[in-house]
Amino acid sequence: MWLAGWKYRRKITINNSLAYGLSDYQVWIPTSAFGANWTAIRSSAQPTMADFRFTPSTATTTIPYWIDPDTTTANCRGFWVKISTLPATSGTTVYMYYGNPSAATGSNMLNTGIFFDDFSQSSIDANKWARTDSGGSYAIESGKLSLTDSSTAGSTEKWSTILSFSDPLIIELDASSEESQSVNYRQNMMVEFIGGKAQHIKHLAGGTHGWSINGNSANGDAIAQSQSYRMKIIYSAGTCTLYVGGTQKSQNTYTSGSSSVSLFAVLPDASGWDISHNHYDNILIRRYAATEPTISSVSSEECPFFSTGTYRSAVIDTASKVVVSSVSWNPAAQPSGANLAVGVRVSSYPFSINSSTPSWLTVSNGQTLNWHGRYIQYQSTFTTTNSTTTPRLEDIGITYRVKPWQEKSITRTSPNAFGFGGGEIWDWDVPVKSGSALTITAYIRYNTEYGGSATKPKLTLSGKGISPTSVSATVAAENAWEFLTINAGTPSQNATLTLRAEGFSTNPAAKFYVDDISVSQ
């Protein structure tokens, strides 16, 4: 199975070490899981990352995912992928596909079950937030949500998510306050879910300042003015735990259930408290598990696997009758489990690329053919039993020689003794150059009437720069083509030599034939 239209994929194994299974859970796949391969993955994908997709290992149905943006890495920090089932204490395999230049973006935060907002728009996103208390003011400042209460005791500026969430839940966000530590009492950076409020409380006198949940004893930490703190609040099984910068700061109980998530700026209904001016950014809300699933392995890159395939060349028109003499290709050997079979067909008559005729003849690498025709086509059939190994055909060569002369026949009639009827002489001019070995080949045959006892037909090459050389047919040439070769050596000068065909039978109706003369130098 392969997701149609995509060039590459990698298999990712996700491990759930919990003693119970998880369903519809958002699994975090960081770019660091791909190691040094991440650079190559990005170069094979669209610059916008629109073509990333995730599928189960058993189907090509895509599953929801969301790209978590981060300016410090190549376009993203990683992926949140919604996995339908993560069995207890076992691994689950998914595929990550990429490499489709025409794919539209598939990243969808809400379909993945993730809530995220980096407040990068010029105004608050009304599809995500609602103003649920308006006792102060709000604004988007430098890409952050800024909330400020008023000087009226009990005033609250509160914004809540449109969506409702159920525990177990984890909320992560960046938060900061503009107020200094020298002023009176204050509640800073407040986040609430199901009545569980995580915040920083500042008491100038009569109390301990620090991080707190639902007003319990603060831990004593001071905060720096305008410094951003990464808050993580976990709501699970009636216990709310607050982490700041990865360190646990406070813990308290809450009532399990469902609600929206709210961000605050609040001035309590009591004397001595000062206005809060808070900033919120990069809020991420998702489901929670006591032990998060981990990425146990990422496989090497895969390409589409086909166990077999056939390529057919175009039909080559040589423009005249030729002799196909040999075929060869590279590489000569294929990887283990892979195979390459080559077929060739030749015809004197035109045929189409997918025609059922003429028949294909399987050939071996380097095979001598000596097939006649004008139209030539080859096909290569690739097979493999290994999904990571493919057969290869880098180049293929089909050698043929053009017939420079038409087939000729000589008829012997009585009472001629030698030579040809009517004083004909069967000669051809053969231009040659000095210093290069000369070879001439031809096919010759004679009929039954020629007579088995008569001197056999022969070819003779003569002229300046060579020693006259002859080659005669044998009894094998009676009614069958015999292949003759004249190895004339190396001419000592440029010249035009004479090639002569001679027959010696005096029998009535005697004939001999010469065909496919080839001169090679």
Descriptive notes:
The strands form 8 sheets. Strands 7, 9, 10, 13, 17, 18, 19 and 22 form an 8-stranded antiparallel β-sheet that branches. A 6-stranded antiparallel β-sheet has the order 8-11-21-14-15-16, with no helix packed on it. Strands 24, 25, 26, 27, 28 and 29 form a 6-stranded antiparallel β-sheet that branches. The radius of gyration is 44 Å and the shape is rod-shaped. The protein folds into 4 domains: 8-112, Golgi alpha-mannosidase II (Immunoglobulin-like, Sandwich); 129-287, Sandwich (Jelly Rolls); 308-402, no CATH class; 408-520, Galactose-binding domain-like (Jelly Rolls). It has 1 helix and 37 strands. With 521 residues, it is mainly beta.
The CATH C-level name of the largest domain is: Mainly Beta
CATH superfamily of the largest domain, called what? Answer: Exo-inulinase, domain 1
- State the secondary-structure class: mainly beta
Count up the domains: 4
The global form is rod-shaped
Assembly state here? single chain
Q: Major beta sheet, specifics?
A: 8 strands, antiparallel
- The N- and C-terminal alpha carbons lie at a distance of 55 Å
Helical region count? 1
Mean pLDDT: 86
Task: Tell me what the CATH architecture of the largest domain is.
Answer: Sandwich
Rg of Cα set: 44 Å
Residue stretches low in confidence (pLDDT < 50, at least 5 long) are 405-424
Helical amount among residues, as a percent range? under 10%
How many β-strands, per DSSP? Answer: 37
CATH fold name of the largest domain, please? Jelly Rolls
